[in-house]
Amino acid sequence: MKKSEVYTYGVAMVAASFMIVFLGGCGNTITGMGKDITDVGVKVTAWQYENPFAEKEVVEETLPLDLEEGAPK
User: Fold this and answer.
1) Alpha-carbon span 32 to 27, nearest angstrom
2) What's the mean pLDDT when you consider all of the chain?
3) Is 71 within 8 Å of 65 (Cβ atoms)?
4) Between 20 and 62, whose confidence is greater?
5) CB-CB neighbours of 66 under 10 Å
6) Is residue 67's pLDDT more than 60?
7) 23-57: buried (b, 16+ CB within 10 Å) or exposed (e) per residue?
8) Is pTM, for the whole model, over 0.85?
9) Chain mean position to CA 63
10) Angle of CA points 50, 53, 54, to nearest 5°
11) pLDDT of 12
12) Cβ atoms of residues 72 and 66 within 8 Å
């Protein structure tokens, strides 16, 4: 083998190694993105069928210090 062939072979091996390492993580990334897209689809579907004219329950939270019986004296 010539010196240039050895160099080309070495560069090809390093490139292949990097591709294997970086593309190995793509499976998890694509799976995670698929789950995110599915979750967004579920939320959009729920929003689509939500009645916009229905009264929504308003819950007011108060701190214990706002109540007279819970305030320190």
Assistant:
1) 9
2) 78
3) yes
4) 20
5) 9
6) no
7) eeeeeeeeeeeeeeeeeeeeeeeeeeeeeeeeeee
8) no
9) 34
10) 70
11) 95
12) no
| Element (DSSP H or E) covering residue 3 | helix 3-24
Query: What residue type is assigned to position 56 of the chain?
Result: K
pLDDT at 22 over 80: no
Q: Where along the chain do its domains lie?
A: 25-50
Q: What's residue 1's pLDDT?
A: 72
The amino acid at 46: A
Helix (H, G, I), strand (E, B) or coil at 4: helix
Neighbours of 21 (CB within 10 A): 9
Q: Using the Cα atoms of residue 50, residue 52, residue 53 and residue 58 in order, give the sign of their dihedral.
A: positive
